[in-house]
Amino acid sequence: MPVMDTNAKHEMQKLQERAAKNGPLCVGLDTDPSYIPQPVRAGYDSPAQAVLAYNKEIIKRIQSEGSACCCKVQIAYYEAMGIEGMKVYSETLRAVKAAGLSCITDVKRGDIAASAEAYARAHFTGDFESDIITVNPYMGFETLKPFTDYCTSKGKGCFVLLRTSNPGMADLERQALASGGYVLDRVGAELTRLSSAFAKTFYSQTCSPVGAVVGCTEETDARAIREAYSDIFFLIPGYGAQGGAARIAATLLLKAGGVVNSSRGILCAWKKSQSCTAKAETGTLSMADLADAAAEAALVAKRELTEAVKAL
């Protein structure tokens, strides 16, 4: 593939700059139809259309309020809704980009040879084109090349799984290597190598187009990983509904920085709103009410994360 104009900013650089301007919050549009109350869903032609309407209302509010720098769209929720769900997925991606926000798609692809090339083409071009995608390196580092080729040629970005937020990460990521350290350390070494290689191509930019997924559920890990990979931009899951504290996320936001994802904490914020629950009881709850609660939760999360960084 050809090399893009090195004076143009790649998508990870754009995201880093948007995070510096709008704050580090990433709004996760992992929108399951069940997150929308049935009486509200009933006002739409299908659950998928209700999801699209909710997504667009949230995107509109976070754009106008400047509460987030990006959205992360988890493809599984849309695949589960079938063909219509994938159309909604595509429309959601377009809505995120139209709002001037960075679009991260959580697809966690990782395969070999022609299959990896097809996955990269599917998610960096066409109906499902995204700015940045998540990728899984556990079939070997050769699987990353079809995706990183698009970083070089089209300025796309990749977040590679490094230290995930789930308890089961210990099954592989925390396994010891005969040469010392853990499996995640070997992945980190490859990310460092890629970052150094990209620094020669994108010499005028402040981060590599290849970042790392690092969960914020363990404080000790967060400090060690941030120190070890000081030049790598992070996608930070685990904050909020998964139990990750703002102070842990803030640790990971030091050095090169990162974005902190919150999905259910925002999408289901209406459940903790007295106004929304009162309206639900009287049958007057609307999609606008749900989106207002989500928007308020996004502002609260942004404020919490910003204050946690200042406190370090």
The number of strands is 8
Largest sheet: 8 strands, parallel, barrel
- End-to-end separation: 43 Å
Rg computed from alpha carbons, rounded to a whole number of angstroms: 19 Å
**Total DSSP helices:** 13
Biggest sheet: strands side by side, in what order? 1-2-3-4-5-6-7-8
Shape: globular
Work out the strand percent: 5-15%
- Low-pLDDT residue spans: none
What is the helix fraction of residues, given as a range? 40-55%
H/E element sequence: HEHHEHHEHEHEHEHEHEHHH
Q: Whole-number average pLDDT?
A: 95
Structural class: alpha/beta
Structural overview:
This protein has 312 residues and is α/β, with parallel strands linked by helices. The protein is built from 13 helices and eight strands. An eight-stranded parallel beta barrel has the order 1-2-3-4-5-6-7-8, surrounded by six helices. The mean pLDDT is 95.
Give the helix/strand layout.
Blueprint: H1 11-22, E1 25-28, H2 38-41, H3 47-65, E2 70-74, H4 75-79, H5 82-98, E3 102-109, H6 113-124, E4 132-135, H7 145-154, E5 157-163, H8 183-201, E6 210-214, H9 219-228, E7 234-236, H10 246-252, E8 258-262, H11 264-267, H12 274-282, H13 287-311
Please supply descriptive tags for the structure shown above.
312 residues, alpha/beta, eight-stranded parallel β-barrel, 13 helices, globular
Short description:
This protein has helices spanning 11-22, 38-41, 47-65, 75-79, 82-98, 113-124, 145-154, 183-201, 219-228, 246-252, 264-267, 274-282, 287-311; strands spanning 25-28, 70-74, 102-109, 132-135, 157-163, 210-214, 234-236, 258-262.
